[in-house]
Amino acid sequence: MTELLERAIARLKSLPASQQDTIAAMILEELEDEVEWDATFANSQDLLAKLATEAMAEYLAGKTQELDPEKL
Length: 72
What we know:
This protein is an all-alpha fold. The protein is built from three helices and no strands. It is elongated.
């Protein structure tokens, strides 16, 4: 465990149980979201490669234009 995490946990221990539970729920939700994101990203590599190939083909065919942030 890192020193920073140990310091955070030490401070959490001083909070009332309800606040500890609220923060623990937030941490667990964040960790689960990270796992889901990693799985989604890992499973999308083929699609991303296909989209990149299509985008490059459109660029090489002159079917694209430079992005102008002022026109967004």
